[in-house]
Design goal:
By secondary structure, the chain is an alpha+beta fold. The strands form ten sheets. The protein has a five-stranded mixed β-sheet with strand order 3-2-1-4-12, sandwiched between helices. The protein has a five-stranded antiparallel β-sheet with strand order 14-22-23-24-25, with no helix packed on it. Strand 23 and strand 24 (about 615-620) form a beta hairpin. The longest helix has 27 residues, at about 40-65. The termini are far apart. The relative contact order is 0.09.
Length: about 675
């Protein structure tokens, strides 16, 4: 027992173990050279040699581990999670980190349009007058003024709200890089390049990956080799071209396909959005009126980016990758190029909406959304977006289905994307701290290669995929679209419906109830709808142009359809599907769309609604009949007495409260004592 209690140094124990292993090795060698069958006891040793060796090696390892550690070992490298593509540092970006790629050259405060001020000229020579007229004819804005304003003009001090100016941007998650995609077709040289310089001067070099100019088959020579040579000096600007005019949607997809930034920021020369409320005088409007709600999809030109326009957009996408964000859009006057600068306090914001003819428009942000926002840095949730200028994560753009590439030219793609993003789990937002100005033309200078029916075709595609049974409300307002739907001439939508299934998108009822509860939903199956024809005059009840309530109705020759009509109309005046004037300079248009000013619905609540751009109802007054904002907005409300009508069996349109009936006799439709023998009081839906 004393032997086992005696302590041996680890070195001696190791040497003894080594000697023992050598002995076993020699023994194994001798035994291995003999035939095991010769000696039974050798056979047992051979079979157990491997076990003995394993036991001895284990013992040696135990002795090694028990020896004192005379040398510090290097730490074992632990497996770390893979880092993100870009490092994520604490804190916020500094002003030095967000410096633009190019500094503006010194500005002359007396130069034309300096600091965003209006171009002014009191005296004109005959040559200058002709040049100005040519500019208006070709571009539908004052190109003479634009050509004399610096391509690199400054816009004066930052006049955004203080919280926007003082906004800091976290480094974690890092702000993504962006590719700015600008689509153009026969654009004026000065407006196109002013946009490019504006992006270069107002965008941090750290974030601006590239500017991609997509030429939608321009025919002007200065937009070909001359433009290519010019942008070579701008380092990160390049031009890609479509050899055939295919329109906005295909051009954007081309730009996206060659972009390398993490975010796509679209800013193009074919914007399909109107200016926000505040108004734009439209050529052809009666009395020079200003419309401030629903607008046609009008082409505009690239604009100018205000201070700090890019960072708020990218910051929101870094925070919420499924957000599709648009800037607050400021107006650049098409005659003077004056930039309407943001104000620091008291601005009433607008958001995008749509009407049941699927025309995009603007509305004042409702109270529930105003209450949700704490200050100007908070985004505005918007049911739809204008679509001309927006930013979206490139990976999310691809995930959500980019664009319906079977839509043609332009029209409806912004409403389609709005429905799709909301219904499939994303969000559409306006970022008030991001401000971009645009020149809004009052009419289009461009032709439609396949006629204006491409707009109706695009709208049918979005209705068939995203609107479920509510598409019937749209079809009642656009007979051209309804015919396409019946004849299935809108192309194959199998892939788009499959996309909706794959993304597990919600239905349109969810969209209306959750995203846009303020939207009034007409009867899916109204009692009567269409045009209301008078027996005495053989003409139809018509709201007239730009009647947004408060104006008398007129009688006008019937279109032949209750909603939009395709046909001839002299003089040649062109309208959008929402019924708004597009201009008189279109050429090679195979068909045109007349305004749905004769469309009415007789509802289950006994109203006569003209609900196209606005929810307008026929009202009985003391001797007059006029349109006004519908008071009934759904249950538990009630229809007021002056908006309730009976369609009698003898074809009178009677207001029960006053006991009077509608007549077409006189200058305007009016209310008179009921007389079923008077043909001017007899009406029928057609």
């Amino acid at each position: 027992m004393r032997l086992f209690r005696r302590r041996y140094s680890p070195l001696k124990v190791a040497l003894a173990g080594a000697v023992f292993i050598i002995f076993l090795f020699i023994l194994q060698k001798d035994v291995g050279n003999k035939d095991p069958s010769e000696e039974p006891w050798l056979k047992n040793i051979v079979q157990g040699k491997d076990q003995v060796l394993d036991l001895m090696l284990g013992a040696v390892n135990n002795i090694r581990d028990s020896m004192p550690k005379l040398q510090i070992r290097a730490p074992v490298r632990q497996e770390e999670p893979l880092p993100s593509a870009r490092s994520c540092l604490p804190g916020v970006y500094t002003a030095a980190e967000l410096r633009p790629l190019m500094e503006r050259p010194p500005q002359d405060p007396a130069s034309p349009g300096a600091d965003g001020k209006a171009f002014k000229k009191d005296q004109w020579t005959p040559e200058e007058t002709k040049e100005k007229e040519r500019g208006y004819e070709k571009h539908c804005f004052n190109a003479f003024a634009s050509d004399r304003i610096s391509l690199q003009r400054a816009l004066g001090p930052d006049s955004r709200p203080p919280e926007c100016i003082d906004q800091k941007f976290k480094r974690c998650p890092p702000l993504p890089t962006t590719s700015v995609v600008i689509v153009f077709h026969n654009e004026a040289w000065s407006t196109l390049l002013r946009t490019v310089y504006s992006v270069l001067h107002a965008s941090p070099a750290l974030l601006l990956k590239e500017i991609i100019l997509v030429d939608d088959a321009s025919t002007d020579e200065y937009l070909k080799d001359e433009l290519d040579r010019y942008v070579e000096q701008l380092q990160i600007v390049r031009v890609v071209r479509q050899e055939e005019r295919k329109g906005l949607i295909t051009a954007r997809l081309l730009g996206a396909s060659v972009a390398s930034g993490e975010v796509l920021t679209f800013l193009d020369a074919h914007c399909e959005y109107p200016p926000p409320p505040g108004g734009l005088q439209v050529a052809g409007a009666r009395g020079g009126e200003v419309v401030s709600t629903q607008w046609p999809t009008l082409p505009c030109v690239p604009g100018e980016c205000f201070h700090g326009w890019l960072e708020p957009l990218l910051s929101r996408i870094a925070e919420e990758p499924t957000a599709v964000v648009s800037p607050d859009i400021a107006t650049i006057d098409l005659n003077t190029f004056e930039f309407s600068k943001p104000v620091q306090n008291g601005k009433q914001h607008s958001r995008g909406n749509f009407d049941w003819s699927l025309t995009f428009g603007w509305e004042v942000v409702p109270p529930r959304e105003r209450q949700r926002r704490k200050d100007e840095t908070f985004p505005i949730k918007s049911p739809t977006f204008a679509g001309g200028l927006f930013a979206i994560s490139r990976s999310y753009f691809e995930h959500i289905g980019s664009y319906d590439d079977q839509m043609e030219i332009w029209g409806g793609e912004n409403v389609e994307m709005s429905f799709r993003v909301w219904q499939c789990g994303g969000q559409v937002e306006i970022i008030p701290c991001s401000v971009v100005g645009h020149v809004f033309r009052s009419k289009s200078p461009h032709t439609f290669p396949k006629g204006t029916q491409v707009i109706s075709r695009n709208l049918v595609r979005l209705a068939e995929v995203w609107m479920d049974d509510y598409k019937e409300i749209f079809y009642r307002r656009n007979q051209q679209a309804a015919q396409m739907a019946r004849e299935k001439t809108y192309g194959d939508i199998t892939d788009r419906r499959k996309l909706r299934e794959q993304l597990h998108c919600k239905n349109f009822t969810w969209y209306l109830q959750t995203i846009y509860p303020e939207m009034f939903v007409p009867d899916l199956t109204p009692n009567f709808y269409g045009a209301i024809k008078n027996e005495g005059t053989k003409s139809c009840l018509d709201v007239g142009e730009n009647n947004h309530g408060g104006k008398p109705l007129i009688m006008y020759p019937c279109h032949g359809m209750g909603g939009n009509q395709v046909g001839t109309h002299q003089p040649p005046r062109y309208f959008s599907p929402g019924g708004y004037f597009l201009g008189v300079q279109q050429r090679h248009v195979s068909s045109l769309v007349l305004p749905p000013t004769q469309y009415f619905e007789y509802t289950s609540q006994q109203e006569l609604r003209h609900n196209i751009g606005k929810e307008l109802c026929l009202r009985a007054g003391s001797g007059s009949a006029e349109l006004g904002d519908c008071q009934y907005r759904g249950k538990p409300g009630r229809v007021p007495a002056n908006e309730e009508w009976d369609l009698t069996q003898d074809r009178l349109i009677k207001n029960p409260a006053s006991g009077t009936c509608l007549t077409a006799r006189g200058k305007h439709p009016a209310m008179v004592p009921c007389d079923p023998t008077d043909p001017h009081q007899l009406w029928s839906f057609t």
